[in-house]
Write a structure and sequence with these properties.
Strand order of the largest sheet: 12-11-8-13-16-17-19-20
Shape: elongated
Structural class: alpha/beta
Bound molecules: cytidine-5'-triphosphate
CATH topology of the largest domain: Rossmann fold
Number of helices: 13
CATH class of the largest domain: Alpha Beta
Radius of gyration: 25 Å
Strand content: 15-25%
Helix content: 25-40%
């Protein structure tokens, strides 16, 4: 997690078995430099002792409205934080919040609250399916409250599977980061990211492809989503797990990628074309597997479409278009040529021959090339490179309002 140090979060915990997952949330936020004030309902203390949260956050834990020396805590804790998260939020907590029933410290601060609220429901599946719970969630959503989950899966031991499970800490943390970081110029913008290689079939089992891992594009998609953008990630075949947040469209060939870009580009404010589409495809695809016994084979390859160029007319007015140039030798000069030839606002250039750069490593050393000049960045992780690219895109996007 990055960009959230120094922020202030109130973590409300109500009485459910998923309270143990709230401990992970408290710990990870504290490690990221966030000030975490935990407020528990009396029922929550039956599952996890306040001492656990106190040890994890290094701060006193609020439970009662009537504690000596902590008068008006509900007003202070309602007013001060940047975000209030309730995880787990039980059926009873949802009912009290929807009614505005302020009968303990947590529900009182929910009424006094100014910050955005994220609720992570957790309950038995029958309680979740009950129309009263559905109505309470609808009321809360209607008031602009963010609701995450519940997930479907194994419930408390012996209770089988069903909807009601609290989402995992990783997912809560990703949404907390997004809510804390969302702001101009990415909040509400549509960002289209392409990632990974494409595959061009030679016959039903063989193909032409390249070494792209998709890591750079996946890192960009996640980073843009964490900044508040609505992200569509069009991904060629990769071994990477889909990032939390972005909508993911899976494609196989360069023609599939072109079609997916053509569908999403007209409404995109930003295109980050990090994919490495196959530039050539077999001129002929064999319908059956070509047998080895047939002897040597000569492949005829034909060029695929240049997607950036082929979809140029579909770009929204004012959209920021970013291309990538993986070269071997003189990357910045070749990137400048691509900037003009493909009508781009920014080219992220790297030299595959340099140590630590290239398609299938965790790091990258890139040069950002725009009409204003070139900026060489040091060797960074792909997540750090993604943040640097988005900082540059933010500058290009902001004046276009
Ligand atoms: N690209 C594209 N369509 C292709 C191939 C590449 O839109 N068929 C995009 C890539 O996603 C990247 C940029 O074009 O953002 C540059 O890719 P690169 O392979 O360096 O460009 P080419 O135009 O294929 O140039 P070269 O002749 O150097 O291979």
């Amino acid at each position: 997690m990055s960009g959230i140090a120094g922020r202030h979060v109130v973590l409300g915990v109500s009485g459910g078995i998923a309270g143990y997952k709230a401990c992970v949330v408290a710990r990870r936020l504290t490690e990221a430099g966030v000030t975490v004030d935990v407020v528990m309902t009396a029922a929550a203390t039956e599952f996890v002792r306040p001492l656990v949260f106190e040890a994890l956050t290094g701060r006193p834990v609020g439970v009662s409205l009537w504690e000596a020396g902590r008068a008006l805590d509900h007003i202070r804790l309602g007013k001060d934080p940047d975000l209030v998260v309730v995880a787990p939020a039980t059926a009873r907590l949802l009912a009290r919040a929807a009614q505005g029933l302020a009968d303990d410290l947590l529900t009182s601060l929910l009424l006094a609250r100014r910050a955005p609220l994220l609720l992570c429901p957790a309950m038995n599946d029958q309680m979740f399916r009950h129309p009263e719970t559905a109505r309470n969630l609808e009321v809360l959503r209607g008031r602009g409250v963010h609701v995450l989950g519940p997930a479907t899966g194994p419930l408390a031991r012996g209770e089988g599977d069903g909807p009601g499970r609290m989402v995992e800490p990783e997912e809560i943390l990703a949404h907390v980061e997004r809510l804390l970081r969302a702001g101009a110029p990415f909040a509400g913008r549509k960002v289209l990211v392409t990632a990974g290689p494409t595959r061009e079939a030679l016959d039903p089992v063989r193909m032409v492809t390249n070494r792209s891992s998709g890591r750079m594009g996946f890192a960009l998609a996640r980073a843009a989503w964490l900044r508040g953008a609505d992200v569509t990630l069009v991904a060629g075949p990769t071994a990477l797990a889909a990032p939390l947040g972005p909508d993911v469209v899976r494609v196989e060939s360069t023609a599939d990628l072109e079609a997916a870009v053509a569908a999403a580009l007209p409404s995109a404010d930003v295109l980050l074309m990090a994919a490495a589409p196959a530039d050539f495809r077999p001129a002929r695809r064999a319908e059956t597997k070509t047998a080895r016994a047939g002897g040597a084979v000569t492949l005829a390859l034909e060029p695929t479409a240049d997607i950036l160029l082929a979809t140029r007319e579909l770009r929204k007015r004012g959209a920021v278009i970013v291309g990538f140039a993986l070269e071997t030798g003189d990357a910045a000069a070749k990137a400048r040529a691509k900037l003009t030839a493909k009508h781009l606002d920014l080219v992220v250039a790297n030299d595959a021959a340099e140590p630590g750069a290239g398609p299938d490593v965790e790091t990258n050393r890139v040069t950002l090339v725009s009409a204003k000049g070139a900026t060489a960045l040091p060797l960074l992780s792909k997540d750090e490179v993604a943040e640097a690219i988005l900082d540059r895109v933010a500058q290009l996007l902001a004046p276009r309002g």
